[in-house]
Amino acid sequence: MKRLYIALAGCAAFFMFCNASGCKSSDKTTAEKTEQAPAAAQTQPAADPAPAPTPTDPGKAPLVRVSTRFGNMTVMLYNETPQHRDNFLKLVKEKYYDDLLFHRCIKTFMIQGGDPQSRGAAQGVMLGGGGPGYTVPAEFNPNLVHKKGALCAARQGDQVNPKKASSGSQFYIVQGKTWTDMELGQLEMNIGRTNPGFKYTDAQKQAYKTVGGTAQLDMEYTVFGEVIDGFAVIDSINNQKTVRDRPVQDITMKMEIINR
Known about the structure:
This protein is α+β, with helices and mostly antiparallel strands. The chain has one domain (3-32, 60-257): Cyclophilin (Beta Barrel). It has helices at 82-93, 181-192, 202-210, 231-238; strands at residues 3-6, 11-16, 28-34, 63-68, 71-77, 102-106, 110-113, 135-136, 150-155, 166-174, 223-229, 242-243, 246-247, 254-257. Strands 4, 5, 6, 7, 8, 9, 10, 11 and 14 form a 9-stranded antiparallel β-sheet that branches. A 3-stranded mixed β-sheet has the order 1-3-2, with no helix packed on it. A two-stranded antiparallel sheet has the order 12-13. The radius of gyration is 17 Å and the shape is globular. The N and C termini lie far apart (41 Å).
């Protein structure tokens, strides 16, 4: 079976993370979890924090309700990433996501879903290899970062996907951890090597230091939306017992567009 890797600098361990759309249904996508910096706080962020403001006006952006047995999350899709926005809305309208699982959940990192093979999957089955059969071109934007609640697209690793195209259906929602000024400064330098001039804004730094996120993924995966209500659901999902990062008790989702 073809295995796909997402490479991250300073990685410590492999784990199943994302499917790459455009792959055959048997493809697997994996990622490497970055090593937790010892200086970063590891406490869980409070429920429903106030993240840094984003360029998209919530009054003019599409909103999607993600329903789970732990409650609902309201997700705002960014107009700054139109291809990802439109693809996600298309799949929601088609009920593509209904009854799929959050099949990969990593505490202080993210919750992942969108694999069509997860619908009704038996316990113990390895998931993360399904998709709609296409990819979405990357839409990186330095204004859109991986703060807690960010909605992001999974993808294949750079070796087989040098343009960093996104999965057609698999996504993850960030939980993350808090970061220090020193850590963010080092990340700016690292990201700047491939994205000259990259700098975090004061608001982004404040969000990472207080709300948390997965800053190590910035400018590597497309961020195309964010949770604006229901942050506690992310924490509840990531508090469940898992085996090989799959929740022991299935966590299904349903989605609907709520402002159109």
